[in-house]
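The instructor's notes for this session suggest beginning with a concrete chain rather than abstract definitions. Hand out the sequence below and ask the class to guess, before any prediction is shown, which regions might be ordered.
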Amino acid sequence: MKKNLRGFALITSVLIISILIPLVIAYIARVTAEYRFTSKFYNSIAAFNLAEAGIERALWEINYNDSVFSGWSSSVDGGGNTTITSPASPAPSLATLAGQTIGEYTVTVYIPSAQNPVTITSTGFAPNKLSADEERTIILQCEKNYQFTRGIVGLNSVKFSGGAYSDSYDSSKGPYNSDITSPLYNAGQQSSVASNGSITLSGGSYIYGDANPGPDYPFNPPPSPTVVTGSYATLQAPLQLDPIPPAEISSASTNNNNAVIDPAILPPGTYALVLNSGGALTLPQGTYYFTSIKLTGGSSIQVSGPVKIYVDGGEIDSSGGSFVNSGVPKNLLILSTGPEIELSGGTSFIGCIYAPTSNIKNSGGCTIYGAIVCGSNVDSGGAALHFDIDLLKISPNFGTYKITYWQEIKQ
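After discussion, reveal the predicted structure:
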């Protein structure tokens, strides 16, 4: 009897084991599969984050570190196009706060000689490049935010009245000439005007180009083709103006060419420039720093260019004087953080003004050759602005790159 019981127990144990083994094997297989899936999912997310980290690193370098890319390799082809590549070994990596390496990434930055668009390709590898379980690649394009892409940008508003108008020309082809019968004719309809606020046209004013107000300020009624020759649709996205970096202004305050100015006009250690009674100041090529500028009594600032003038916090008032530029608009660049700029008196201004915080008033028949970027702009009394499209090729060095295209490339 005991032998029979032992035999039955043995058979039962064998049967149970034979049943359990497949179940255990299936369980282990499932756990293993889930582990592999979880690991692969984790590595996929990590690789994607690593690719984005490479993109962010490249964007930071070209925007804020003057494209230094310390430790990266760089080459320039015969067309002046630059290719910058991250180190191959060891590749850049990311780590947790505990010091555990998440993975590695590689980045290639292609900067064409024209500066636009820049293409960034970044690939993330997890857990590492040599034995990657997952790879994710992102390609991105970005363009330099050039400051002078329109004749007038008034961030808050633009107002034309009293026959004021705006058109365009190309200074690289010669002076402005609106005589269509002349072989030297040099006038066009590319002087776009834009604002996040309203654009007001009255009293026979017109724009040879586009006029694009903010989304909340559509033209009502729409302007006729004789008033606005181009598009008059509202902006699809708000304008964003890069501020003048405080570090750049600070640098200009200590590294400038003010020393060439006669001490009788600007005593050493002072920066508020005032010219009276026909006074004339000639500024040779260089960088100058003032806290304000006031011209009265027919006085003038003459530039032999290229000249860059920083005005830090104060007003610019040339209503009783003038800026005289014997060259092209790009030879005179005024950058202001002040509240007001006044140009008037029937004189001409040849240059470009970047003053995102300033209200600019142009009256009394003052003709501007160049471009204006400001907080708000008022043109009246027959004032004219001839946008120099040659300014499309230049930009203050603080312009940042804006993303225009982003896509993940499937492996």
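Then share the key points. The chain has a mean pLDDT of 88. The radius of gyration is 32 Å.
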